[in-house]
Amino acid sequence: MCFFGLALISINSYAEYYVYKHSDGTTWYSDRNLPADNYKLIATIGRPTASVSCTGSISGRAKDHAPIIQQYSDLYGVNQELIKAIITVESCFDRYAVSRVGAKGLMQLMPETAKIMGVHNVFNAKDNIRGGTRYFRQMLELFEFDVELALAAYNAGPNAVKKYNGIPPFQETQGYVKKVIKHYNSFTEAES
User: Fold this and answer.
1) Is 90 a catalytic residue?
2) Residues facing 41 on adjacent strands
3) 23, 69, 76, 142: which is deepest, by most CB within 10 A?
4) Residue 45 half-sphere exposure, CB side, CA atoms within 13 Å?
5) Domains of the chain listed by start with CATH number
6) Contact 78/137 with Cβ under 8 angstroms?
């Protein structure tokens, strides 16, 4: 099944759909892969993100975005290895990643968060990393630079962290914090 055109369509967020740009400039929405000779994949909607799509070298994927990560890590005073770790867990450096709840891009920004952070194009790596790093810095400040609480807030929202006065008892959030810390340690060891 293919959909043609630029109109917005309602798509089941649990299925996987592809957005292609045809060589003639038109946009196509499809539930199957289209031939690469005429169609360029520009997004995938509803697919699982990091846990399924992460293949190949993480350090290689991270290297492609290193200058942008360094720029905004320096600007917002956040450890760049920590930002790499967040991106690894959030999207595995897939700038077109879309979660089943609507988080988008490298740092998996929710639409409202992206809007508040001034992100105009969540699929633009620079815009997404800028907004995500700025938001994470706000979480660090809010939770007195406790990295684990800031990570929990990035994942579950600051109100959940406040409500439980710590990392919320959500399996996803607890696992998220552990995974980010694990990747952070790996990136830090690789740099030393």
Assistant:
1) yes
2) 20
3) 69
4) 15
5) 2-46 (no CATH), 57-191 (1.10.530.10)
6) yes
10: Cβ contacts below 8 Å, ≥ 6 apart: none
Contact 65/129 with Cβ under 8 angstroms? yes
**Residue 6 CB: number of other CB atoms within 10 A?**
7
- Tracing tokens 């499809």 back to the chain, one arrives at 30
d(CA 71, CA 171): 33
Portion of the chain with pLDDT greater than 70, in percent: 81
pTM, entire model: 0.74
Instruction: Summarize the confidence of residues 82-108 as an average pLDDT.
Output: 91
C-beta separation of 104 from 114 below 8 A: yes
One of 90, 141, 144, 189 is an active-site residue; which one? Answer: 90
- Only one residue has tokens 């595995």, namely 92
In Å, the largest CA–CA distance within the chain is 55
CA distance 163 to 167: 9
